[in-house]
Amino acid sequence: MSFFCCWAWVALPPCSAMPCSATTTKATTMLDYVLGGLTLAILLGYLTYALVKPERF
């Protein structure tokens, strides 16, 4: 997990380099959680389907 945090720190300039507010940071964090949850649900559904119907794969 720390690899991704460090990569984001390198890829994106820190918040002090561009104007942003606590609301923007909070919205970005919420978006991260939503996208992570959606990815997890899709992956879990796909793997469950592949486990139940292995002949299709």
Tell me the series of helices and strands, N- to C-terminal. Answer: HH
Euclidean distance between termini CA atoms: 31 Å
Q: Flag low-confidence runs.
A: none
- The tally of strands reads 0
Structural class: mainly alpha
Shape: rod-shaped
Strand content: under 5%
> In this structure, how is the largest beta sheet organized?
none
Provide a count of the helices. Answer: 2
C-alpha Rg (nearest Å): 17 Å
Question: Percent of residues in helical segments?
Answer: over 70%
How would you state the average pLDDT, rounded? 76
Attribute tags:
single chain; 57 residues; mainly alpha; 2 helices; rod-shaped
Q: Which helices and strands occur, and which strands form pairs?
A:
Layout: H1 2-11, H2 22-52
Could you describe the 3D structure shown?
By secondary structure, this protein is mostly helical. The chain is 72% helix and 0% strand. The chain is built from two helices and no strands. The longest helix has 31 residues.
Task: Briefly say what this structure is.
This protein is an all-alpha fold and 57 residues long. 72% of the residues lie in helices and 0% in strands.
